[in-house]
Amino acid sequence: MEIGTTVKNQPQTGYLSSIIEAGTAACRLYGLSKTNVVDIARLLGKSPASVYKIFPSKAAIWDAIAGNFFETDLCFTPSAGGELTSAASRLKETALGQHRLMLRAHHGDSQMFDLIVLAAEGNWPSFRDHLTRLQAYVGELVATGIATEEFAPRNVVTAAACFCASVISLW
């Protein structure tokens, strides 16, 4: 099944957000496999047709919900004093921080964890966006490490991709 996040007729951000919030609530309440568009519409007090006016498919709704979870719950924020530490220390902090966020999701929000694992396994756009953001941040750290001669010169994009692949494999 092809997953897409294209939205029909560019709806108002508020309604789009309310669908994502209702979808998240339904997923947490019923579980991913048992939640359907009718459940989401019911939580909104709308018809399923009104939800499908915004999203072209159930898969697009799941992708939007996963994307929201990646951005809000799995977005690693480095510590404030990060600029004073080595690039290697910041890479370690990033890997451990990302792992802690995943553990917290796995143990504290298992329904949403199942959704993001599905997004990762299916290579959904939301997962690719999350991975792109993570690789960009890691790439900056690798480039800084190379510039300060902490790391040997390497292809930054490849090094960041390999590092992120190792972090993602911890899921």
From TrEMBL:
Residue ranges of domain HTH tetR-type in the record: 19-64
InterPro entries: Homeodomain-like_sf, HTH_TetR, TetR_C_27
Protein's UniProt keywords contain Cell inner membrane: no
Key words of the record: DNA-binding
MF annotations from Gene Ontology: DNA binding
Secretion signal, residue range per the UniProt entry: none
Domain of life: Bacteria
Start and end residues of each Tetracyclin repressor-like C-terminal domain: 87-167
Pfam families: TetR_C_27, TetR_N
Name assigned to this protein: TetR family transcriptional regulator
Lineage: Bacteria, Pseudomonadati, Pseudomonadota, Alphaproteobacteria, Hyphomicrobiales
